[in-house]
């Protein structure tokens, strides 16, 4: 019995295996953030391919919260229909579906949008200097996350992931490198965690108690003065009681630094966060070999594994992985004659 193919139940969400497709921007929506045919095919194919949990790409809770002009959006009720169609297709083929709710903050590259951030520091010379958020701006964005969660529920998602990683808005509050505020949202770790805490609290008012919430974090800033896995664990411990059920562990992109990457380079961060928060974690990064995913899970280093680019290369990766791990799984009936 391969651990990778062992089911797991978190709140009401029951996954058939531990394979997660992490959010990956596809820059393919229309210019108003609506889903298009590409999304139905792209996500539906990974569901047919046997992925247990598909998490849709970073989706803007505000127009100015998008990373690019072709990101998916969830800031208007008109977005629900297309998203619901993606959900229905994926569920039809046996996957559970989540959506990453995001706000780019200072990393918004959409032409004509106002750029906001905790502090007026540009990401690089290529980016605009953001406007420092007022208390009203903070309230507005928190409200937008809540509205995004309401729409995600109406669209039928099983889980939402709050994007607190990769140097986007929430991460900009969490990191001392980008948050220079002197009010209750800046300074101490507790203050820097406040924005995320209030978002989770507000989102929980509309997101059903029985459905889980994932928070994705950058566990390492790769700068001495920045956040490290132990800091993120502490932040999550301050926030988790508001309703966090799973942590998706990534790293970097708060500031531009060179990172040495290799298969499994982030697994050690996931282990620290798992141990210190006692929350289930999704770990990954450059994983392409089923044996490696199996090792991570069997040794209790993570609860779920994400497979990103490998699933872009091969949407049927789970079917081949089962064969490699000598684990018999049902193939889609249409493909049974091709079973390995
Ligand atoms: C094309 C592409 C788009 C991505 N977009 C997002 C995103 O929207 N949100 C996010 O949290 N991470 C995003 N990522 C990061 C992935 O979720 C993942 O963490 C990363 O690719 C490392 O995993 P891998 O080595 O298995 O691909 C993106 C990665 C790629 C390759």
The tally of strands reads 13
Task: Please state the structural category.
Answer: alpha/beta
Q: What ligands are attached or bound here? A: flavin mononucleotide
Beta-strand fraction estimate: 15-25%
What is the averaged pLDDT score? 98
CATH class: Alpha Beta
Q: Specify the number of helices.
A: 10
Strand line-up across the major sheet? 3-4-6-9-10-11-12-13
Work out the count of structural domains. Answer: 1
Question: What key attributes describe this structure?
Answer:
binds flavin mononucleotide, eight-stranded parallel β-barrel, two-stranded antiparallel sheet, 13 strands, alpha/beta, 10 helices, 340 residues, TIM Barrel
